[in-house]
Fold this sequence. Notes:
This protein has helices at residues 28-37, 78-96, 101-106, 108-118, 129-132, 264-267, 391-394; strands spanning 4-8, 14-19, 50-53, 56-63, 66-72, 119-120, 123-124, 156-159, 162-165, 185-198, 204-217, 225-229, 234-235, 249-250, 252-255, 259-260, 269-272, 277-286, 294-302, 307-316, 323-332, 337-344, 351-356, 361-370, 374-383, 398-405, 414-419, 429-443. The chain is mainly β and 445 residues long. It has 3 domains: 4-132, 2-Layer Sandwich (Beta-Lactamase), CATH 3.30.450; 184-290 and 407-443, Immunoglobulin-like; 294-405, Mu homology domain, subdomain B (Immunoglobulin-like, Sandwich), CATH 2.60.40.1170. Strands 15-18-11-10-28-26-21-24-23 form a 9-stranded mixed beta sheet, with helices on one face. A 5-stranded antiparallel beta sheet has the order 2-1-5-4-3, sandwiched between helices. A hairpin with a 2-residue loop joins strand 3 (50-53) and strand 4 (56-63). It is globular, with a radius of gyration of 24 Å.
Amino acid sequence: xxxxxxxxxxxxxxxxxxxxxxxxxxxxxxxxxxxxxxxxxxxxxxxxxxxxxxxxxxxxxxxxxxxxxxxxxxxxxxxxxxxxxxxxxxxxxxxxxxxxxxxxxxxxxxxxxxxxxxxxxxxxxxxxxxxxxxxxxxxxxxxxxxxxxxxxxxxxxxxxxxxxxxxxxxxxxxxxxxxxxxxxxxxxxxxxxxxxxxxxxxxxxxxxxxxxxxxxxxxxxxxxxxxxxxxxxxxxxxxxxxxxxxxxxxxxxxxxxxxxxxxxxxxxxxxxxxxxxxxxxxxxxxxxxxxxxxxxxxxxxxxxxxxxxxxxxxxxxxxxxxxxxxxxxxxxxxxxxxxxxxxxxxxxxxxxxxxxxxxxxxxxxxxxxxxxxxxxxxxxxxxxxxxxxxxxxxxxxxxxxxxxxxxxxxxxxxxxxxxxxxxxxxxxxxxxxxxxxxxxxxxxx
Length: 445
């Protein structure tokens, strides 16, 4: 049970606000934003997804730069409310096609109609796009996707010069194409978020993959879909049987309620009738060691009583036909660091460096990295006092974020995507895409 729901921009502007129960003060959105903006408790830089202020529980998730938030005075399950916020964002994107501040403002009537159907007096009714189509009648006002600003690295695919949102496409599932026709197509995205921790000598200490097979269908009549995965796919820590050296071994997985698993054990094929909107077909987790896409080498040495030098080297361990985008490297420096001068390799293009004096952090951003290439950054540090210990213990670890389109670390593949034919001429477009993102990519010094 929630009392209020609201969506705020990055500036704190109130885009959408709905009060369901009237038991929380009207200025809660401003209180929430100030708390999130200037959060400094427990040494954390960002506010947690759930916190309490003056007896009011605040819940929030960040979606493409927007803050989806809810309040309540009741003792409700945090995971339930956070899941509700994610689902509201997803169903809104299904209807609007593009989820951003501009699309919300231009479609505020439709958004409020959706909210009234999703939540009644603070209680959830439904978050199904398919069910909502029967009771939501406003047509979305479409936003031109070609004029969109660049999204964050975790939410885009790059194919040449063409930019596509990471979760399927920027079209509404309820609106028709210009001229009243609907393009028959289906999108399947295999999105993997990897977590890797390297030791100071470069060995892998921990590694994990959180993956999802995401689907968005624009097929009329909801035909049956068959998705075939790797023949050598195994589930559970059973390394025996037919699992060879190159087998894909999942620790565990779960499926969407629409998926039928009748033939999954036999030929690793999933059959389903896709509902309207975007949904996860399958979620999976892998904790066995895999080949990391990047290797990070860091060296920090004293260069005098008040100086030190840092050398950061990144090597892309994937094929030269693949390009990683929006790479960001960060490294905390000793608290007594006062100045940093940077030296990039000759001919470096699309790279920027910065020293954040407020939190003593080195930042290195690279627009793209081609597979097989190597990039180096050197930084000279100036200290306000002599180091009385080991500098490597007072600096680091090095962390990295990136997005690699058309690459997946687990080697999980969609072998084919079969659609039940209505006629001999029925041949919809099929799009299968892969992307790997950094969830936690850390190298110790």
